[in-house]
Amino acid sequence: MLFQNEIRKYTRNPGTTLEEKELVDMQNQAIADLKNRNVAGAIIVPIAFFVGGVATEYFHDHSTLFYFLSFLLAVALFFRILTIYLFSKVADYSKETWLPIFFWSNIFIGAIWGFFSASATLFYHDSLSITLVIILLAGISGGSIASYCIWKALAYGYMSIILLPAIVTDLYIGNSVTIPIAIAILSFFVFNLAQTKNWHEHYWVSLANTFFVKKNARDLEILNKELALEIINHKKTAADIAVSRKKLEDIFNAAHDAVFIYDFDGQVKDVNATVLELFGVDKETALQYSMERNFTSNVNEDIDLRGIWNQALAEKDQEFQWKATRKNQPGYFMAQVNLHKTLWGDEPVIIATIRDITLQLKAKEAALAANRAKSEFLANMSHELRTPMHGILGYARLGFKRADSINREKLHEYFSLIHESGHRLMGLLNNLLDFSKLEVEKMRYNMRIGDLFPYIHQVTTELIPVAAEKNLHFTINCPDNRIPVYCDHEKITQVLRNLLFNAIKFSHKGQEIQINHEKIKNREGREKQQISVINFGIPIPKDELELIFEQFIQSSITRTGAGGTGLGLAISRQILRDHQSIIWAENGENKSS
Questions:
Q1: Sign of the CA dihedral with 360 first, then 365, 370, and 372 last
Q2: What's CA 308's distance to the chain center, in Å?
Q3: What is the pLDDT of residues 133-144, one digit of tens each?
Q4: What is the percentage of the chain residues whose pLDDT exceeds 90?
Q5: 149, 207, 262, 392: which could form a disulfide with 199 (CB 3.0–4.6 Å)?
Q6: Based on the domain organization, do 435 and 536 belong to the same domain?
């Protein structure tokens, strides 16, 4: 980079650092100033040359040499003027190849002037006309300080090549006139070198300061814009906060739940409109309430109010039921209270939301009563239906024994149908009985630690004949051939049997039914056993993946003729819930469930 040393030296500012683009702009500005300062010199130099040649009779006495020097000067001036013109056509001078041409064309002009002044001194040292040459030489040399001080190497080179030949020539002649002239020119030369150094430093300091000021001005402008934007954003934020606060107040007052805002001492700071409606008081009265006054009464003695409050202060959300009263109304209603620690504006508070759940509790009690009645009905009905089923099975066995005395084929067919129907009905009754036990919470479990893997083999072996009717086969994937669990093995086997029956019913012919086992870990990091039963056939509708586990609910796909009672999955889910386990359904790829 041209002027690299100057730029590095004069841009060392501890408070401001110029970027690379700014350094390039600084270099371009210096080159542009150098170009502009050389425009006048391109005119003055040839004029001075011809004036000196004519005044000293050089033009007449040594015309051939003068013409030759004029020709060389014209060539050098051409390149000097050309580079000045070309520089005016570009924005970035740093990459221009014309810079060396500009340098050497000026040096060459200086060399021509140096030769001219030295030869003129040699030819006319005893003539007064030499004085004009010396004056012109001094003027051109002095002018070069202003023209070339930006580029110190060019300035030093130009002055050296223009003055030193005359000094050497005067010393060579060595008379009483030329020696003082040589000393004077030499002194002038030294002075010009020192002046060039000062002007050079002054220029670059000024240029660097100009760029520092511009950068600081730009930075200040950016800061002003950022500050203005920040003020606008602050105003917008303040407006948004005001709007949000208004919306929050609207939501607060429109909430269906009664909301109390307490400070940490339990004093009410604010209430919403629902509080006034729910308790039949005005806002002034409500603001006089406190946590103790709100939730302490002789019908709520079992509530550890202080303990609940302390837990809420410890940022543990609290929920409890509370018997509340309304002003000027007898009796009480059941309320659900939630306590939550949060910020209300900038102040930490406890928010209490209160909801009247009297109707919900009554509805829940009614549902429980209906459920119990249904369970009792199912239990009674199953016992009523089981008795005649024993008779059906008994006659079936009797028919098998006497089949040889009558039409054996016909009798065998009838009794087989009776036997098959009896077992199917018995299975239905067993499901009904199990379901009723689960509903009234009388199902008993024989919990023990054991291996579930043999039970899976047992169930699949039992169901091989049923699966064979649809050309289905079972595949068991259990890497360890061992599934250690703590459970009621008979009940879990019942669940597996229900799932495999469903898999058989809903599989397409010729498919496989997979029973996969893998070990998983729950959120607490404890190891659990996961068993998947996968069949390929009719997918379960997406909106029924949860519904099929409800009691008496069957999937819409049973309309295809697969059949079922709607109890198997409900019983299975309840058995697994009693084992602190879960069951779910999902659809996979290739019509798998």
A1: positive
A2: 39
A3: 777 776 776 676
A4: 12
A5: 149
A6: no
Closest CA to 196 of 236, 159, 166: 159
Question: Phi and psi for 345 in degrees, rounded to 5?
Answer: 75, -120
In a domain, 315, yes or no: yes
Among 168, 197, 219, the domain boundary falls at 219
Partners of 292 in the β-ladder: none
The pLDDT, as a whole number, for residue 563 is: 47
Dump pLDDT digits (tens) for 486-500.
999 999 998 998 899
Q: How far apart are CA 29 and CA 36, in angstroms?
A: 11
Question: Order of strands across the sheet with 333-344?
Answer: 268-271, 258-262, 347-356, 333-344, 318-324
Note the Cα 244 to chain centre separation in Å.
Answer: 26
Tokens 């030296």 correspond to 9
**Distance between CA 258 and CA 435 in Å, rounded?**
41
Total number of residues shown for the chain: 593
Distance of alpha carbon 45 from alpha carbon 115, whole angstroms: 14
Tens of pLDDT, residue by residue over 59-79, are 888 888 888 988 998 898 888
Assign residue 524 the CATH number of its domain.
3.30.565.10
Could you give the CA distance from residue 587 to residue 569 in angstroms, rounded to a whole number? 16
Instruction: Beginning with the edge strand found earlier in the chain, give each strand of the sheet holding 512-521 in spatial order.
Output: 473-477, 512-521, 527-534
Model confidence over 268-317: pLDDT tens digits? 888 888 877 777 788 888 787 777 666 655 556 667 777 888 888 888 88
Number of domains in the chain: 4
Reading the block at residue 185, the tokens are: 């020119």
**Gyration radius of the chain over CA positions:** 55
Residue 562 banded pLDDT, cuts 50, 70, 90: very low
Instruction: Tell me how far apart the 2 most distant CA atoms of the chain are, in Å.
Output: 172
User: Which helix (H) or strand (E) covers residue 528, if one does?
Assistant: strand 527-534
Q: What is the residue type of 81? A: I
Q: pTM, whole model, 2 decimals?
A: 0.40
Q: Are residues 86 and 195 in the same domain?
A: yes
Domain termination site, one of 396, 416, 439: 439
One domain for residues 351 and 394: no
Q: Which residue has the tokens 């939301």?
A: 353
Q: What is the DSSP string of 339-379?
A: EEEEEETTEEEEEEEEEE-HHHHHHHHHHHHHHHHHHHHHH
Has residue 593 been placed in a domain? no
Q: Are residues 431 and 483 in the same domain?
A: no
- Residue 215 domain-assigned? yes
Q: Is 571 exposed, middle or buried (0-12, 13-18, 19+ CB in 10 A)?
A: buried
Both 184 and 265 in one domain: the answer is: no
pLDDT value of position 586? 92
Domain limits for position 129: 4-219
- Which CATH number covers residue 352? 3.30.450.20
114/108 Cα distance (integer angstroms): 10
In a domain, 388, yes or no: yes
Q: What would the pLDDT profile of 397-419 be if each residue is shown by its tens digit?
A: 666 666 666 666 656 665 666 66
Same domain, 423 and 530: no
- Indicate the residue type of 368: L
268-271 vs 347-356, strand pairing mode: unpaired
DSSP state of 127: S
Both 527 and 542 in one domain: the answer is yes
Q: Are the beta carbons of 185 and 170 closer than 8 angstroms? A: yes
